[in-house]
Design goal:
Elements lengths: L1 H49 L7 H21 L2 H61 L5 H51 L2 H11 L6 H40 L4
C-alpha cells in the first residue's frame, strides 16, 4: 500500500542519514587520532636535533618524547596492522638513535661542567689578583719601607697568576674538545636522522590511507627523500665550516702564545 511505501521510504531515508552520521563520526575519530600522530612524528624526529645542544634540558627532552610517543600509542588502538607496523618500525629506529645520541652527549656535558668549574677558579684568581694589586698600591702610596712585605705580595701575585694560567689553559683545551665533540655529535645526529627519516613516509602514507587520503606513494617518497638529502647537505656544510672555525681559532691561539 501507499502508506507502507511511505513508511519504508522514510525508514530508508533515516537509515541513510544514520549511516552518514556514523561515517562522519568515524572519520572525525580517525582524524582526531591520525592528524596528531602525524604531527607527533615530526616533533619526535626534531628531538634528535635537540640533543646536539648540550645546554638543553635532557630531562625535558625526554618528557617531551614520552608525550609524543603517547600520542602514537593512541593510533595503535585503532590502526590497521600495516599502520601499526609502520609506526612501530619508526619508533624502534628512533629510540635506538635517541639512546646512541644520549651516550655520545654524556661526555660533552661533563666537559661543559668542567669548563664551568675552571671558570670559577679563574674568577677567584682574578679577584685575588685585584685584591693584591690594591694592596700593592696602598703599600706604595703609604711609603711603607717594609720590602719583605711587598715581596710577599709579589710572590702571592705570581701564585695567583700561575693558578689562573693553569685553569685557563685547561679550560681552553676543553673548549676545543667540546667544540669538536659537538660537531661530531651533530654529524652523527644527521646520519641517524637520515636513517630514521627513511621510515617516516611509510608511517605517514599509512596514516593517509587510514584517513582515505590517497596520494602517489612513489612520488611522495621521492619528494621526501629529496628534502632529506637537501637537509643532509646543509648540515654537512655547516659541520665543515664549524671545523674550519675551530681550526682557525686554534691557530690564532697558538700564534698568540708564541714567544715574541
Amino acid at each position: 500500500s501507499r502508506d507502507q511505501l511511505n513508511q519504508e521510504s522514510t525508514h530508508f531515508g533515516n537509515q541513510l542519514e544514520y549511516d552518514a552520521r556514523q561515517r562522519e563520526r568515524e572519520i572525525s575519530l580517525r582524524r582526531d587520532v591520525y592528524l596528531p600522530a602525524a604531527k607527533a612524528i615530526a616533533r619526535i624526529q626534531a628531538t634528535l636535533g635537540l640533543l646536539t645542544d648540550i645546554n638543553a634540558d635532557q630531562m625535558a627532552i625526554g618528557r617531551r618524547l614520552a608525550v609524543k610517543f603517547g600520542t602514537l600509542a593512541k593510533a595503535h588502538l585503532v590502526a590497521s596492522e600495516s599502520t601499526v607496523r609502520a609506526l612501530m618500525n619508526y619508533q624502534t629506529a628512533l629510540m635506538s638513535a635517541y639512546l646512541e645520541l644520549l651516550v655520545l652527549r654524556g661526555p660533552l656535558v661533563l666537559k661543559k661542567i668542567a669548563i664551568e668549574s675552571h671558570q670559577k677558579y679563574i674568577d677567584r684568581a682574578d679577584a685575588g689578583l685585584q685584591r693584591i694589586d690594591q694592596l700593592m698600591k696602598q703599600h706604595n702610596i703609604s711609603g711603607n719601607a717594609d720590602q719583605a712585605a711587598f715581596e710577599r705580595l709579589v710572590a702571592q701575585s705570581k701564585i695567583e697568576q700561575n693558578a689562573r694560567k693553569s685553569h685557563s689553559d685547561k679550560q681552553s683545551a676543553l673548549h676545543k674538545e667540546l667544540a669538536l665533540g659537538q660537531i661530531a655529535l651533530t654529524e652523527r645526529m644527521a646520519e641517524l636522522a637520515v636513517n630514521t627519516a627513511r621510515l617516516i613516509p611509510d608511517a605517514l602514507l599509512s596514516c593517509r590511507q587510514e584517513l582515505s587520503l590517497p596520494i602517489d606513494p612513489v612520488e611522495y617518497r621521492r619528494l621526501y627523500e629529496a628534502q632529506q638529502e637537501a637537509a643532509r647537505m646543509i648540515m654537512s656544510e655547516a659541520a665543515r665550516r664549524s671545523r674550519d672555525l675551530v681550526a682557525a681559532a686554534d691557530s690564532i691561539s697558538t700564534d698568540s702564545n708564541q714567544p715574541k
